[in-house]
């Protein structure tokens, strides 16, 4: 949060005038701490750039970096550097360990301010440094996450909880310790390992928080096996109640919104929306579906094959073409990664565009989302918390006829590739949210616990 | 209808026109500027070989050529625009040649009144009939029965010059648009663009030595022309960020300006542009970010897209969206792959053309000045 605040302050401060693109050598006086940090940062980056330039074959990298370095040293970049300093440092360390293209992004000290404002996005890094005792089930899960074999908020949560059941069953309380106190410290490194593979989803976070609550509340007097079985039962119940049954209720409620002759537009692949459509079709409703898809993940193709295999009439197009078909859609169904207290929906990148176009053409936008996806934070834009897909063609989403040279940075100076996986849809673009407690307007999600008499969701 | 004119135009003319028409039909000539250049070259050849005894015959010849070319590829609007431009120049030259002083400068009247203001666009229509009937004008001998080619002979050099003007304008389009690029871009700005428009590319590259800024390029599926644009810009020293189209809304809050290219600018100030432009422009409007369109004036089209019909779009090969490698999905699914988007005038803030910057509300005036009323329907 503070990082974005510093960058906003930096933009507001007056820029030194740059008549010819030559930066003024003197910087306006800042606090001593910032200046030294910036100086330290610049020095570190210069050293790293020199090292990288000496290592890499490209002779053009050096003059480009040198030219860039001398040109861009305005006050805002100095101010954003301490802001971006800590996450950049962390990612640098990760980058050098992995030895992938990621280090290039931070090695050039002269990069324009524009690139640095994205530097706090979580960069993906490979799992593999398993520190401490990581259960093999967790190692396997980490690998599956980092290769996107398991993707989607619900899928990841269920997979995590199932893996935790195995870990709990294999856990042995050390002597002079109680399960309720020690199990959590045993689980923490496992969780850290999963987070290092891919940043934690809100669903996983909520589930783990609930699990922690159950663990700390477990009876001390129970024999170990009974306590473990009780925990596994609680995990099963959580999955059953908050995900499986919630999905069934959502299918029913959302299915009521589908009439014969409707044209339903959906984006990418939401597990909930897929179930809604399949159930509505099984009930005999006649409708057709428009599937809109986009890079980097191109998940819509999988949804397409599922829907066509049961005989639903489908149209497929890529995101830029949506303007041509939006007037034909009667309702838009999208899924969500998480729902925030201000009513904003954090979902697959591109959902915001779909919702915006639909709202422009008066097509209702319905978000299908279980209540356990609710996050108590207020999220205002897509930058605060986002994830970047790894460079390269991991999802085979690039046409085979095109050269793949632009998919990885491979020695191109001045070029950076960003593949944000999520974006934030503002509540103004959303018509309604279908949850298992009913159809609610997006801003009401925070009042649901109160309405149900619970303290948390 | 064009009896005397068609027997005047040689078979070579026909061949040249047919050649271009078939290439247009098969989409072997794609892109606004390329089609405009080819059309001007064909017209130059037609005019140089044409035989006519008065101006109307020449106009008819050019019009019939224009009709044939437009029919071949109605979605390439610059073909029709170039024909109209050539006709406009030809008429202007003819007026100056026949009348000298009180010719095409008739638009400037000394007395200003509302009536004159409203009629401003019509003066040429009023002038044309009197001139055709009165044949004792200067040295031009129209419809001379003894020497049918005298008229053509005297007028042709001037006409060729006029056509050369049109050609020059087309060839210097990028330079003229990029002249003031550094006044439109300030330091440390973040600009969003999509696809690969040569006009936008030239514009951004010309500002690069004067300003340090960042360009975010969206890859613009399914042509992925954004990738080519990103490589071109980054090799010119501009720091570029390549993102998929899905990230446009996510990044829009940080973007200072959206710069787009156009395929054709319509009479109401709207435009046809590469698919994805509507997304970028709408997202920019949602964030109150200015949208600037760089295009040459040869893209101004005196046509309208009032009903925003599906059929106004051009559709491209669906296999780039869902190819045959998808197997049995291919015959179960409808695939939509439009080539262009229609962007409403309300979404665009300014058009930067080779002849100055104009808001969409002034486009009708530019069209009035560039083309003659009677040519709107070729």
Topology, element by element:
The complex is a heterodimer of chains A (457) and B (378).
Chain A: H1 2-12, H2 32-55, H3 61-71, H4 75-98, H5 102-107, H6 113-116, H7 136-146, H8 153-170, H9 179-197, H10 202-216, H11 224-255, E1 262-267, H12 271-282, E2 287-293, H13 300-309, E3 313-318, H14 322-325, E4 331-335, E5 338-340, E6 345-348, H15 351-360, E7 365-368, E8 374-375, E9 415-417, E10 422-425, E11 432-435, E12 438-440, H16 448-452
Chain B: H1 3-8, H2 11-25, H3 32-49, H4 55-72, H5 77-99, H6 114-119, H7 123-133, H8 150-171, H9 173-178, H10 181-184, E1 190-194, H11 198-207, E2 214-218, H12 225-235, E3 239-243, H13 248-252, E4 257-261, E5 264-265, E6 271-274, H14 277-286, E7 291-294, E8 333-335, E9 340-343, E10 350-353, E11 356-358, H15 363-370
Parallel strand pairs in B: 1-2, 1-4, 2-3, 4-7, 7-10
Antiparallel strand pairs in B: 5-6, 6-9, 10-11
Helix pairs in contact in B: 2-3, 2-4, 3-4, 3-5, 3-8, 4-5, 5-8
Which fold name corresponds to the CATH topology of the domain at 259-451 in chain A?
A: Rossmann fold
Could you list the spans of chain B in which at least 5 consecutive residues all have pLDDT below 50? 1-8, 101-109, 124-138
Order of helices and strands of chain A: HHHHHHHHHHHEHEHEHEEEHEEEEEEH
Computed structural class of chain B: alpha/beta
Looking across the biggest beta sheet of chain A, what order are the strands in?
Answer: 3-2-1-4-7-11-12
Task: Assign an overall shape of chain B.
Answer: globular
Largest interface: A-B, 67 and 64 residues
Strand order of the largest sheet of chain B: 3-2-1-4-7-10-11
What Rg of chain B, in angstroms, do the CA atoms define?
23 Å
What is the first-to-last residue Cα distance of chain B? 15 Å
Discrete helix count of chain B: 15
CATH class of the domain at 259-451 in chain A: Alpha Beta
Q: Oligomerization state of this entry? A: heterodimer
Distance between the termini of chain A: 24 Å
Percent in strands of chain B: 5-15%
Major sheet details of chain A = 7 strands, mixed
Protein name (chain A): IF-2B-domain-containing protein
Organism (chain B): Leucogyrophana mollusca
Protein name (chain B): Nagb/rpia/CoA transferase-like protein
